[in-house]
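Here is one chain, start to finish.
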Amino acid sequence: MATNAIITHKMRSLLTMLGIIIGIASIICVVALGNGSQQKILSDINSLGTNTLDIFNGRGRGDRNANKKRNLTIKDADFLRKQFYTESVTPNVNGSGTLTYGNKSYTASLRGVGEEYFNVKGLELDTGKLFNRDDVINGSQVVVIDENSRSQLFKDKNPIGEILIFNKRPLKIIGSVITKNNMSMNSSDLVLYTPYTTAMNRIIGDNHINSITMKIKDNVDMQIAEKDVTNILTIRHKAKDFFIMNVDTLKKTVESTTNTMKLLISCIACISLVVGGIGVMNIMLVSVTERTREIGIRMAIGAKQRNILQQFLIEAILICLIGGVLGVGISVAFGIIFNMVIKNFTMIFSIFSIVAAVLCSTMIGVIFGYMPAKNASELDPINALSRD
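Its structure:
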């Protein structure tokens, strides 16, 4: 009977469901977008390397004099390499200049790094080989290029063995790398990797380094390692003239922030559910008024109060449940279209959020449908039959 009542008044039922549909679809889409954005940000952070500490010159990110101070040294990196919690360490020297290949010139970035840098930063070998410890010790004039450099300079040509001129210094290409997790990069950036000894002694001509990257062993707490590194370098420098970026701390911050944003926006979307629930209650109250004579006839032929209560309550629950299912279907359809159109970002649906949304719509049917159902069950049969 409840189903027949819903089918008989299709337009009224659909308008009643509208608030529920919008609320359920909004919550599911918000959670899916939040999960997708969180995974995208974390995958980009993972491209910086896991279990890593990046140590920079200066007192913090906003220190304008960081590049002038140059407090970190190769000896600092060698000392940190000896610590029990250290898996690998690489000094980093950064520079930019003019790259010449053939008869064309480009602006490129040069990164002088150790042989362990590629593993720490999640750079996978595409072709050729990476430079080794001997290349670092000897200051070999070799270079590894990134995927952007390879595509712009060589296209389909094999770059191995080719000679690049960077700031009038020849460098032989021995390999090319690609970035894990599709870390977003500006397609116009040309990045070259060479041993830091080569960069310091043959190209840049500066014995100071820009930063130190450490990879911490898996069984060591990152917070403890960071604190110990801070104490060691503070004692060596007799001042805290550096700052450390802990990738794991950054990941936790991102997770906390995105979870907070998902909760906030979901709470806002829940307002639609409340509005939808009030709409269900109002329509059901109107329905009770319209069907007073019908209720009177049923009670006259033996229907009890609980039977009338059950019928109207089931009707309200069905309206909310169907609205919830339609909301889930709309959100999933939107997600499929979104993922097809947007290539670098995906909506990730949560089974928990979908189940919770459907249960929530059912609860709304029970809560907001109870009052109209109770009013219907308490009607006096004689008065109900006497109404037009």
